[in-house]
Amino acid sequence: MLKHVPYFAGVTALCSLFLITGCATLPERSMRKQMTQSPTVLYYHDAVQGERDFYAEAVGFDEYFLYAMHGNPVVRAAFERSLAAIERIPQARALGDPTLSFEYFIDQMDTRYKVSLTQMFPAFGKRGLKEDAATAEAEAAWYLFEAERFMLLDRLSKAFYNYHYLARATAVTEENVQLLADLEKAVNARYKSGTASFAALIKVQIERERLIDSLDALRDQRRAQSAGLAALLNLPVGEVLPWPTVEPSAPMIVDEALLDGMLADLNPELKAADARIEAARRRMALARRNGLPDVMLGAGWMVMPGMDGRGDESDIGLMAGFTLPVWRGRIRAGIREAAAMLDAAAHDRDALRNRLRAELSMAVFQFQDAERRFLLFNDSLIPKAQQALTVARQAYADGSAEFMTLIDARRTLLEFQLQAARAAADREIALADIGCCVGAFEFIKKGD
What we know:
This protein has 448 residues and is α+β, with helices and mostly antiparallel strands. The chain has a single domain (2-444), classed as Outer membrane efflux proteins (OEP) (Up-down Bundle). It is 68% helix and 8% strand. The protein contains 10 helices and 4 strands. Strand 3 and strand 4 (313-322) form a beta hairpin.
């Protein structure tokens, strides 16, 4: 019985090592906990709480955004990739499959058959480095999922506020078409009474037809923009979405220097780049450890003919071995490859930071420019254009002004109204761009 103690000790050691290598480590448990406790896990579910019929009622940007987070297939694909990346951690930590071999001797002499079980154990530190690299890559996948949400925010804000601008442009143009229709009636009445020329009547009719053509183009454009907005929400394309409701953002002061610091701390793309650099560092350390030998442990059971005609006898054997990393050229090449990949990851991160800084600077400029234009048109130019149109109508009515003066005043008011609507849409789009660059959804909250 005592002679089997080494055998059982060896098998017990192997089983214990298998159990240890199968246990989740703290980084993996932390990431899985993050996945289950984070609100973003809701984006994985098929059902959306409080689902709306977007084709039946007008809703605001927040409702569109929340629905898109649940339904957009690009975001869901990024979430699934982050789940898949976490599952690579236990695979990296695990040992390779053990080898079970059976040997039967055809020419029976001293041994009839032999059964062996062996397991290869990587050199000290290799498994930990593989696990660390997989953990860093899983973190990068999670941050890329977060980045995909911001990219969706960017695309959705452009589609939503351009659609809202189209609504405002359509409404303003319809109003001006009606004004021209009323003006045409007045000119026609004056023409019949002999107080207006035929040229004036023709001009107002031409102006009205030109504006009707612009209105038709805006109406035709609605279906295309509605389809683009519906696609971001993963809604069936066919019907036309109602015009959205918009609450303008509260006035805010944008400090580019402060935002640049927030970008470095919050942007998920930069965090993903940092995680990829950490993964590259771990793989470089692993490449250096490839020069160390791996160890093989095993146990075997042999059946042999008995002595002096007695029955078969069996014996237990333990075995050990190690690899011989003699091909140093291959190992050195692996180290150089890992070093190059680490440098590439660092350069990618620097390029990304430069690009994000440039995008942030442009978004800040576009916000400030849009806000300046919005205030200029709404507070100054539009009221003055309205006054000019009123004066032109009175002057034309008493015969002290040309008809073209009235037409020019109306054109100017229409242009200013459209530019004010365009500036309002550009302001909201720029705010979303700032939020995407920085990595903060707070820039899209309304009325704060």
